[in-house]
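Re: beginner question about structure tokens

> Can someone show what the tokenized structure looks like for a real chain? I only ever see the sequence side.

Sure, here's an example I had lying around. Input first:
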Amino acid sequence: MSMVMSGGRRLSPASRAALGFFARYATIIGLLLMIAVFAFLSPRAFPTLSNFTNVLNQASLAMIIAGGLTLAVIVGELDLSIGFAASLHGVLVTGLIVANKLPIPLAIVIVIALGALIGLVNGVIVTKAKVNSVIATLGVGTILTGLAFAYSAGVPIVAGVPEAFLQLSLGRWLFGIPNNIVIMAVVLGGLWILVERTALGQEIQAVGGNPAAARLAGINVDRIKILGFVVSGMCAALTGILLASRLGSGTTSAADSYLLTAFAAVFLGSATMRDGEFHVLGSFVGVLIIAFGFNGLNIFGAPTFSQYIFQGAILIVAVGLASLGRMISES
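And the corresponding structure tokens:
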């Protein structure tokens, strides 16, 4: 069926193809244009290897948490607890190392396991109790904020953080590449393989595409949805751990802002190379757009409020592009 505009006029095949191309590649074209403009305006500071490495390093944590969120969104749900959860995990891992004197690897394993448990709780509430995922995860996130304040008494855990824990984020153990970039590449690469190259990934996409049809095909829809939340929770935990390592402290609200960044990136990603479909590579591109935008604004000395305006505008544009892509694909 031909695509029809609101005024009743049918689009020609050429116009429809042009719109489809725009919906799929506008984000990548916009990213390249933004880089080109910033490079032209600041040829000494912006287009350098050190600056690009810095951008990727700074964006690596947002990429990890956005990658986890992508799994939850692919299966048709939203996880609003991730930012609050990451803040709790940062406080907890620091406390376990400093106050409880646990070995760093053990503390990390415990916190990531807790992230999986929080994801499991979110998934069970949504699938078994039939609570809307927005309400469920927002409620869980609020509880996690309370637990973070209860554990730390609202005071950042700073004193006694060992150097070995700081080097987890600040070190360069592989060919001089910042550790966070390496960890991000491993996590996103693993998620991409899971979704795009495994039988389980096909089930994940089937559940997100049409849960009723997936159930008729014998897929355990509730199990797949819970898995999406568990992966999201584990990525939030890893993000909180790495952020605490980068900051050298556990702070109750340190990662809260990652929620908006992750959602903006995921929706931008759904408008990247596909017709309104959520996917891991797209989320990676979405974070790059936000990261390079922030970097350019900082280089040119833009006031802090401009970053919030930029990110909010990006989210609106992202949702619009995703909707356009879906409209074209379904027409």
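Each token stands for a local structural state, so reading them left to right follows the chain. The two ends are 6 Å apart (CA to CA).
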